[in-house]
């Protein structure tokens, strides 16, 4: 029997107009999450930066439902780089459409 991993989406904001790519944000997030003591990697653990807008500083992260709470805990207690970026989570949802409607501004498409 195959266990399905349900996708969850996290809206986030960083300081606008910082020259940083989606890949660099991904690397920073992975580093922060793996250095956190409460994260258990294994089946169902994945994270991906779906979209990021440099102008507004808004973005979307996709992860599995099994690891959502662990990821949120490690992100909300930021260290080094996330503090410099002023990384802040805006909310979570099960679909991108709902996430955009509830937490992201109309300019972010």
Structure characterization notes:
- The longest helix has 14 residues.
- Strands 2-3-1-4 form a 4-stranded antiparallel β-sheet, sandwiched between helices.
- The protein has a single domain, classed as Alpha-Beta Plaits, CATH 3.30.70.3250.
- It has 109 residues and is α+β, with helices and mostly antiparallel strands.
- Strand 2 and strand 3 form a beta hairpin.
- The protein is globular.
Summarize the structure.
This protein has 109 residues and is of the alpha+beta class. 34% of the residues lie in helices and 24% in strands. A four-stranded antiparallel beta sheet has the order 2-3-1-4, with helices on both faces.
Key features?
4 helices, Alpha-Beta Plaits, alpha+beta, 109 residues, four-stranded antiparallel β-sheet
Write the layout of secondary structure elements.
Layout (H helix, E strand, L loop, with lengths): L6 E7 L8 H14 L11 E6 L5 E7 L3 H9 L3 H6 L2 E6 L2 H8 L6
Antiparallel strand pairs: 1-3, 1-4, 2-3
What gross morphology would you assign?
globular
| Main pleated-sheet profile | 4 strands, antiparallel
Which consecutive residue ranges, at least 5 long each, have pLDDT under 50?
none
Task: Indicate the CATH class.
Answer: Alpha Beta
| Total helical segments | 4
Total DSSP E strands:
4
Mean pLDDT: 83
* Percentage of residues in DSSP E strands: 15-25%
Structure classification = alpha+beta
User: What's the architecture, going by CATH?
Assistant: 2-Layer Sandwich
Instruction: Work out the count of structural domains.
Output: 1
Strand order of the largest sheet: 2-3-1-4
- CATH superfamily heading: Ribonuclease P, Pop5 subunit
């Amino acid at each position: 029997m195959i266990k399905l991993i349900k996708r969850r989406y996290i809206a986030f904001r960083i300081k606008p107009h910082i020259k940083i790519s989606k890949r660099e944000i991904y690397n920073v997030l992975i580093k922060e999450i793996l250095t956190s003591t409460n994260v258990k990697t294994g089946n169902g653990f994945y994270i991906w930066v779906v979209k990021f807008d440099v102008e507004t500083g808004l973005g979307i992260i996709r992860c599995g439902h099994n690891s959502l709470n662990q990821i949120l805990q490690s992100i909300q207690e930021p260290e080094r780089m996330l503090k410099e970026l002023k990384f802040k989570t805006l909310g979570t949802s099960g679909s991108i459409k709902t996430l955009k409607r509830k937490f992201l501004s109309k300019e972010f498409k």
